[in-house]
Amino acid sequence: MKLSPDALLLGPLALSWSNLALLVGILAFIWLAARQGLESKAWWVLLATLLAARIGYAVAHLSTWPSLGAALLGVVDIRSGGWNWWVGVPVGALAAVWLLRQESPRLLVPGGAALALALLPLGVQFSLTRPAQTPAPPEYASRVLQYLEPAQTRPLEVRFAELPKPMLLNFWATWCPPCRAEMPLLVEYQQKGYPIVLLNAGEDVGAIQGFLAQTGLSARVFLDSAGLQRAFQVSGLPTTLLIGADGKVLARHLGPVNRAQLEELLRQLE
Question: Are 238 and 179 in contact (CB under 8 A)?
Fold first, then answer.
């Protein structure tokens, strides 16, 4: 077991801190509710809370989705995360009152304990991502990266310090299904002029060109010839980092990003 800024590493499994917090909260709530004989009702309260939090997130970012159908699909696809607990928790409380009536206060202790325990993984993540833990710019600013322009067969070179900042730095690989799923979205915004650096994690030029040809994507792609994956302590793919003007990491996201999350990150570049 290892700890990284993005996840708890259990062998080959990388469990993001946000997902671990959600899992710990769910297990604690159900276990404590079961000890009070309320397990069946607690599951319905939990379902109402999660569904409302997910719908609330999608509605709050409705303008970012290209269509209503895409927004509904985004609600179902929870791989990238995105929850609005300001909506979910009140709905869950109303569900508890409706299901349990006068017994609903009995869920206060399970709910409060679940919230407190869920904050523990987030606290660990905070301690691992403090500015002092982030590599200082001199450690990697001078490193040289290779990159491919669209329809180019031979890679060019650029120093990391010469890349535009602030920027989004996305670590990906052709063999990674979530990476492949989010790539069209990232390429779309790169083509719009946003500073998105697509950094392939350790594959050769042939594999990258084959993927781009197969998918029909036209993008500037970088090769991690400078060992940035280790320098930024990337524990899983895909990982997207928000790099500030000083070269330091301002935000991290493990897993695929959806359109709403991508636009939230891009707004921080302004």
Answer: yes
Of 115, 1, 129, 137, the C-alpha closest to 49 is 115
DSSP conformation letters of 124-193: HHHHHSSGGGSPPGGGTTT-EEEEE-TT-SS-EEEEGGGS-SSEEEEEE-TT-HHHHHHHHHHHHHHHTT
Mean pLDDT (whole number) for 238-260: 91
How far from 34 is each of 27, 43, 110, 140, CA to CA, in Å?
10, 10, 9, 51
The CA distance from 62 to 56, in Å, is 10
State how far the Cα of 267 lies from the Cα of 245, in Å rounded to an integer: 14
187-221 confidence digits (pLDDT tens): 999 999 999 999 999 899 999 999 999 999 999 99
Q: What secondary structure letter does DSSP report for 81?
A: -
How many Cα neighbours within 13 Å face the side chain of 211? 22
Q: How many helices (H) and strands (E) does the chain have?
A: 9, 10
DSSP state of 13: E
